[in-house]
């Protein structure tokens, strides 16, 4: 996840008590920064800390600044990193640079927080656009709450409201959080105002079919990666909440029927991953007939030996699937890690999903040169199109989240 959702319950507790918390949020990173934009740390009035902005590197400095902000009520934008004279003292030894926005959060400064929390809990897409820098200090801390078709709050001028609301909706559709730069009154060209847009698209889904011990381990991995995990099996004796405590949902239904119904309900998108662990033809062949014909899905993998895989392919061809459709299937599932236990196998499956998402090759980093972090070509194309629309003023196609 890597954003305020990690600390939302702690922040809400302070907010609902009518008190003020100091919240530090990473808004921009350069080079090998340890945490992504949106990563947040909350300092409660009693001094307790939740979350992280740097994995430990600059927490002490942000903690001190959060206490200052709680005391004087003035938000601040600070840069930490190798370019600072105090970089060594701060401890950002990875060589990266972080811009962190630290603000007081209370019922007064952020009255919409509970609404945002409700949207996140109900899997409704929402973005929070906050002014983090402005030539007029009175603007700093103002925010808009933006949905796909709505914008609540005020930045202080109709022009700025319209520009930021439109761009925030575009970033929300792209599943992206970043800093946008405007003229002081929201002019698309110029400088004087910076707005951090934190997009909270619903968590991507991981659908695990087959209520076996490997599924329990994979559900745990999926949760760790930020997926909303559903385990589905037609056998009620196996598909129980007690056997899958980390899953968000446990469903008793024939897998192919459940998947078809989810597609019909609009619950499947390009980020959804489907893991078929049944390795039983009566379950997995009808299920894969549905899955491999879905117009949008991020990953489809099926467990089984190579012999099972060949038999499955033959059955799917008999069912009418084309070679192009069958090429979407990752089977046998997972990367070659030498995995044996359910937990190790779950790691190998998760590794293949991550590699497919970001274009990784699964090789040891010690054998490689160049950048460590990848960006998927699909996401790059999507963001290039969005950036072009901002420069030219053309319409941005509000497509589903990646």
TrEMBL record:
UniProt xrefs under InterPro entries: MoCofactor_Util/Proc (IPR052698), XdhC_CoxI (IPR003777), XdhC_Rossmann_dom (IPR027051)
Residue span(s) of domain XdhC- CoxI: 15-81, 121-183
Pfam families: XdhC_C, XdhC_CoxI
Top-level taxon in the UniProt lineage: Bacteria
Region (Disordered): 374-402
XdhC Rossmann domain span: 206-353
UniProt-recorded name of the protein: XshC-Cox1 family protein
